[in-house]
């Protein structure tokens, strides 16, 4: 585990933002920004676990510093512990890196850089400031100011996203989910990322709200009058992704059960259409605020899917215009 202010490349570790069985995700901030903030406050700045003069040079003035919201001022650092990797996990990581390197797309999280150290493989990823779609659905579109952005000048346009909480109720839908305008917005962006994957003969295999991350809008287009632009959706976590040529089948049981296609749950062979089932399950949650099926285990989940004739049934009153 990396300590606070450990240095990875040009970045200093700030906070832990996620944890898995063999990797931890941290927020990383450009060292030059941290140094400037500490100098302005009179505090000393040094990096633990890295060279203290890694970015040595003339002190930057506030006018020449990068905007803390734009560009790569902040990154998500996925630090993989090498000693926890077995052969299969190593293969998955290599596949994830290979796919991300070739997946430049506005709705797929960007892999910026890889930093290799004695104990860790660090994947420096695009930081998605608004968290994941699961939390966004639960909070009906309300977004709290991330701690890493507190202290921005009140005039900064980024703060427009954090509107009056009462106004946010306009993003809620009639079935405990989100408004149709919001659903269409996210579904279009998810569909765009999926078209890219299929064009490149890739299958994700773990599409779920927790793997759909949200960032400030790149276009600034207003879709809901009186509110800031809706966030952009980014498909993330390609740990289970793999190449799957057209007409080919896969057989590995992987993914998140509540969003997993029934053919995968049965242990059978499947093709890229398995991702479409997962998208349907995400769409249901966008509409209804919960997954289409709830179960204690794979067997119970498959029984409930079969009870519905292998289909996802939306609320009876829901009308798609």
TrEMBL record:
Enzyme class: transferase
PROSITE patterns, A to Z: PROTEIN_KINASE_DOM, PROTEIN_KINASE_ST
Keywords: ATP-binding, Kinase, Nucleotide-binding, Transferase
Pfam families: Pkinase
EC number: 2.7.11.1
Gene Ontology terms: biological process: autophagosome assembly; autophagy of mitochondrion; piecemeal microautophagy of the nucleus; regulation of autophagy; response to starvation; reticulophagy
UniProt domain Protein kinase: residue ranges: 11-321
Chain segments carrying region Disordered: 41-64
SMART domains: S_TKc
Gene3D superfamilies named among the record's database cross-references: Phosphorylase Kinase, domain 1 (3.30.200.20), Transferase(Phosphotransferase) domain 1 (1.10.510.10)
Keyword Chloroplast: no
Database matches in InterPro entries: Atg1-like, Kinase-like_dom_sf, Prot_kinase_dom, Ser/Thr_kinase_AS
Keyword Zinc-finger: no
Single GO molecular function: ATP binding
One GO term describing the cellular component: phagophore assembly site membrane
Protein name: non-specific serine/threonine protein kinase
